[in-house]
Amino acid sequence: MRVYTRPPAPALAQLVRCFHAFDDVHAPQSADHHLYPECAVSLSFLDGTSWFGPPGAPAELLRVPPVFVDSATRGQRIRLVSLGRTRMVGVELYAWGAMLLFGPLLGVTPVVGPIVPPPLAARIARLLAADELDAALDAVEQFITERARQIDLAPTAATEVAASLYASGGRGAIAALADAQSLSVRQLERQFRDQVGMTPKTLARIARFEAAKNRLLDAPATNLTSLAYELDYADQAHFSRDFRAISSVTPSEYSAEVSSPRMRRIAAMSHLFKEVIAPARKL
User: Fold this and answer.
1) What's the alpha-carbon Rg for the chain, to the nearest Å?
2) Which tens digit of pLDDT belongs to each residue from 68-88?
3) SS3 of 117, please?
4) Which residue spans of the chain are classified as CATH 1.10.10.60?
5) What's the pLDDT at 109?
6) 157-277 CATH, one of 1.10.10.60, 1.10.10.10, 3.20.20.10, 3.20.20.140
7) What torsion, rounded to 10 degrees, do the Cα atoms 101, 107, 111, 114 define?
8) Confidence of residue 105 (pLDDT cuts 50, 70, 90)
9) Does domain 2-148 match CATH 2.60.120?
10) 229-241 confidence digits (pLDDT tens)
11) pLDDT tier for residue 177 given thresholds of 50, 70 and 90
């Protein structure tokens, strides 16, 4: 198994959490995964055989296309099943970075043509098949860099507040953040819908869930009551209800899931990823 990440160049830091690469061989006993909500949108290039869908009946699973978007801000977990050799490279965009670069992106959807030029998709497919992950990742980074040069990257009130909410793990009074930008809450909400793709409250809720999820992935035995208060939940019951509403599992169930030997290996190998994305960069 290979899992590694590449931090963005400074010019992309306000849009991109990281670039990532993944290579693994999935046996039947290691084929099933869950993807949980995050404040991110991933553009990925896949060489392999995978299916996605809601947790539950296999009949509901759909084939993952070779180039696809996963909008992790969807507010629900999805099931991912992979068999055999899987190679993948991609980019993790902040929600507002995805909006700036590509506009609204929802669900797990194919994007060749509308977003990714077919020649680029074909080139990356050849590189993945040849096991040239670094070259494939270079091509993804070049594509995002060129795309970013075509847009206005000047920060706005909405993106400033979004970055602040993400950096704080969803903590902070929306009214106070709006006031700091000389906006009413309603004005901020309108800007958020246009520039971030959701309301400030939704972003804050997902950011707080992501902070909790990452803590439990890193240390599954974390005391849940202490974590609830640390993340400004009223109590553990409130924490558990909100966690379950977003992910369909309780914090205890998630901790048990990520306690498996395979998940501990993934957590250890992805530690750099968490170091890259933990402090969201100020715009």
Assistant:
1) 19
2) 888 877 767 888 888 899 999
3) coil
4) 157-277
5) 60
6) 1.10.10.60
7) -60
8) low
9) yes
10) 999 999 999 999 9
11) very high
- Looking at this protein, which amino acid is placed at residue 65? P
Q: How many residues are listed for the chain in this entry?
A: 283
DSSP line for 182-211: T--HHHHHHHHHHHTSS-HHHHHHHHHHHH
Judged by DSSP in three states, 42 sits in strand
Residue 1, SS3? coil
Neighbours of 121 (CB within 10 A): 20
Q: Which two tokens stand for residue 160?
A: 């400033």
Yes or no: say if 35 and 88 are a contact pair by the CB < 8 Å rule: no
* pLDDT value at residue 35: 85
Buried-state track 94-109, b at ≥16 Cβ within 10 A, e below 16? bbbbbbbbbeebeebe
All CATH 2.60.120 domain ranges of the chain, comma separated, are 2-148
The two structure tokens encoding residue 146: 């060129």
User: For tokens 């990823």, what's the residue?
Assistant: 273
pLDDT at 21: 93
